[in-house]
Design goal:
Mean pLDDT: 87
Order of helices and strands: EHEHEH
Helix content: 40-55%
Number of helices: 3
Number of strands: 3
Strand content: 15-25%
Shape: globular
Radius of gyration: 12 Å
Structural class: alpha/beta
Low-confidence stretches: none
Distance between the termini: 16 Å
Length: 79
């Protein structure tokens, strides 16, 4: 199926959020991807944005912040 937006954590076992991002970008380029992490560093953020992440959420986050990021990502994609 088709998804408008994927939310993924940086740490996923046995994989990771960057591999999810790569897969979504290659198979469904119209789908937005928001990556979440509790310990982002500048290099990691640059990497996920360079790979096409729609947005990034630093954990922990409040529900209102999540909702704002989801809305912004969907609006940017016209969905």
């Amino acid at each position: 199926g088709r998804f408008d937006l994927v939310l993924t954590d940086h740490v996923l076992l046995p994989s990771n959020g960057q591999s999810v991002l790569e897969t979504v970008r290659s198979r469904w380029p119209q789908t937005g991807v928001v990556v979440m992490s509790g310990n982002p560093n500048k290099g990691y953020l640059e990497s996920v944005y360079a790979q096409g992440a729609s947005d990034f959420l630093e954990k922990p986050f409040l529900p209102d912040k999540l909702l704002a990021v989801v809305r912004r990502s969907l609006k940017a994609r016209g969905t």
